[in-house]
Amino acid sequence: MKFTILFLIFLAACSSAPEKKKSQTPIKQEFRKTKPLNPSEVSEFYQGNAPSLNPALQDETLDRYSIEELAALNTSGEPLMHMSVLCTRKDFAGAFQLASKNFNLYQKVAPYWNQVANCHLAQGSYRKALLFYNKAIEVKPNFVPALNNIGVMYARQGQDQKALVAFERANKQSKFSKTPRYNLAKLYLTYGLAESALPLFQSLLSESPQDIDLLNAVGSSYFVMSDYAQALSHYKQIPQKEWSRAEIGLNLSFTLSKLGKSKEASEVFAQVSEPKQANLKRYYQTVESQLGDSK
Fold first, then answer.
1. How many CA atoms lie within 13 A of 218 on its CB side?
2. Cα atoms in the 13 Å half-sphere on the side-chain side of 10
3. How many Å apart are CA 190 and CA 207, to the nearest integer?
4. How many CB atoms lie within 10 A of CB 210?
5. Residue 216 near residue 247 (C-beta atoms within 8 A)
6. CA pair distance 175, 217, nearest whole angstrom
7. Residue 274, exposed/middle/buried by CB under 10 A (0-12, 13-18, 19+)?
8. pLDDT in tens, 165-212
9. What is the dihedral sign for C-alpha 206, 210, 216, 217?
10. Rounded (to 5) percent helix, strand, coil in the chain
């Protein structure tokens, strides 16, 4: 029987409002004399140091923060970061209002337009998202977060070839940006190109050796390459309390089965909470069948 290991990590959007609506008169009067910020005055990365189970990309994206971690973030005095948090929490009305209020101040800053686009992307408004990503690139040519996020947008629409081009372009523009590397590697692995994905994941893991999703990613790359011993080595570095997560516990259980460790594989599988998502549920059933066949 042929199996394909399920590897689930989210394509991450780089954080940097929605479509700018016509401002009401009080807002126009309040900000009429506000001098726009220069791009150099705005950080493109979040400078917080909140702990995270997945710290590798936490200074570039909020996509891998838990709800609890988002709630703990201090975004006071950082309008763009606050917009990002609001959109992540699905408070689009609040994010749009904040975007409109800060338009005059941030209109020359690419991260502002990138965040406007991110809010539209989170709503599934792909045409509007692309419009504002292109505006960010117009303000700052080859702006890496916008290039990366265009790739995320295409990937969510199932246009993987266009997504690949965008991720490769973003990665080429900045070898130090981690999120495009992550997304490019994820896309490679989705198509079984583990040899191409592995060095990208390893470079990220070397910077954040305890990142749970990256340990899972590297382990999954080795699994696809049939190097089950190396796969197991990385999966076992993930704290045992996380094994109940289907995307982790199923990978570990499947790997143990491949190594002939049927009893241990069944014990790990028993810890996994049966998932509700369709793709994870199918994978759960595949692993369950594999364990049954190996008894």
1. 24
2. 12
3. 23
4. 14
5. yes
6. 20
7. exposed
8. 999 999 999 877 899 999 999 999 999 999 999 999 999 999 999 999
9. negative
10. 65, 0, 35
Tens digit of pLDDT for each residue in 10-29? 456 666 533 333 333 343 43
Report the alpha-carbon distance of residue 103 to residue 109 in Å, rounded: 10
Spatial CA neighbour of 266 closest among 238, 289, 239: 289
Cβ within 8 Å of residue 175, ≥6 positions away: none
Residue for token pair 């292109």: 134
Query: Got the DSSP string for 132-194?
Result: HHHHHHHHSTT-HHHHHHHHHHHHHTT-HHHHHHHHHHHHHH-TT-HHHHHHHHHHHHHTT-H
What does the block give as tokens for 277? 């998502």
Percent of the chain with pLDDT over 70: 74
**121-141 b/e with 16+ CB inside 10 Å = b?**
bbeebeebbbebbebbbebbe
Distance CA 221, CA 243 (A): 18
Nearest residue to 14 (alpha-carbon basis) of 124, 151, 130, 125? 151
Q: Yes or no: say if 64 and 213 are a contact pair by the CB < 8 Å rule.
A: yes
